[in-house]
Design a protein that fits this description.
By secondary structure, the protein is an alpha/beta fold. The protein contains eight helices and twelve strands. It has an eight-stranded mixed sheet with strand order 1-2-4-3-5-6-11-12, sandwiched between helices. A two-stranded antiparallel ribbon has the order 7-8. A hairpin with a 5-residue loop joins β9 (155-157) and β10.
Length: 246
């Protein structure tokens, strides 16, 4: 299916649990360089369906099979994508409540979107949330690439053969994640591998301490994408969601 966001076609998928006429929905967002068919995204999706939740996944701007160039994506565009997905979820007549879940940059995105839509979002699940991105951009570092934060180049190096516009760093510098955390008072579950090589686990711990109502599950010895113990992630998500929805 396709969802339009300001003329940009977002590739999306909506799945509903069997036998449910009415149910909650979870908007599920992948991370930087990722897509909605990644192993860990699909595993979390399946766990949520088994809990009785519908799941709306999408490839974000410049990723997967959605429109837009990877080079041109930034946190503002992803926030707008998230707001569009939330509004689409709200338009569905079977939806009772809306939850957000995102991995890495998707985790950061749901943290920001939850603050903007705090009156509409019941709870959020940031997975290995990369909320250090704005902080690092202000210091002049992104993904191991160093630059002058006061004189940002037009193009930044990124993963593989892909590059990023300097506007990615400019946008990131303007984002205050702490304000977003403080604005959202609903329940939060943070799941983080304590051997995360991309987002230090300290960020997950710090976010859980700062949120008004947060639970933290650390996955011992696991990586950013849960290469070793993905079943512990899905178990944590399932247990927590069942407590919320009964």
């Amino acid at each position: 299916m396709t969802i339009l966001d300001d003329g940009i076609r977002l590739n999306a998928a909506l799945e509903r649990p069997e036998g449910k006429k009415k149910c909650p929905i979870v908007v599920l967002i992948h991370g930087f360089t990722g897509h909605m068919e990644e192993r860990h995204i699909l595993a979390v999706k399946d766990a949520l369906l088994q809990c009785g939740c519908a799941v709306l996944r999408a490839d974000m701007y410049g990723h997967g099979n959605s429109e837009g160039r990877f080079h041109d994506h930034n946190l503002f565009k992803w926030q707008n994508n998230a707001l569009t997905l939330i509004d689409y979820a709200r338009s569905l007549d079977f939806v009772t409540d809306i939850y957000l879940c995102g991995h890495s940059q998707g985790g950061l995105t749901v943290m920001l979107a939850a603050a903007l839509k705090r009156d509409q979002i019941v709870a959020i699940i940031p997975l290995s949330p990369a909320w250090m991105i704005p902080e690092m951009a202000r210091k002049g570092e992104l993904l191991g690439y160093h630059f002058d934060p006061e004189h940002i180049p037009d193009q930044l190096a990124a993963w593989g053969d892909r590059t990023l516009s300097g506007n990615y760093a400019r946008v990131a510098q303007s984002v205050c994640v702490e304000d977003a955390i403080d604005a959202y008072k609903g329940p939060v579950l943070i799941v983080h591998g304590d051997a995360d090589e991309a987002v230090p686990v300290a960020y997950g711990i710090h976010a859980a301490m700062r949120y008004a109502d947060a639970d933290l599950v650390l996955i011992p010895g696991d990586t950013h994408c849960y290469d070793h113990s993905l079943e512990k992630v899905t178990e944590a998500v399932s247990t927590w969601m069942k407590q919320r929805i009964g």
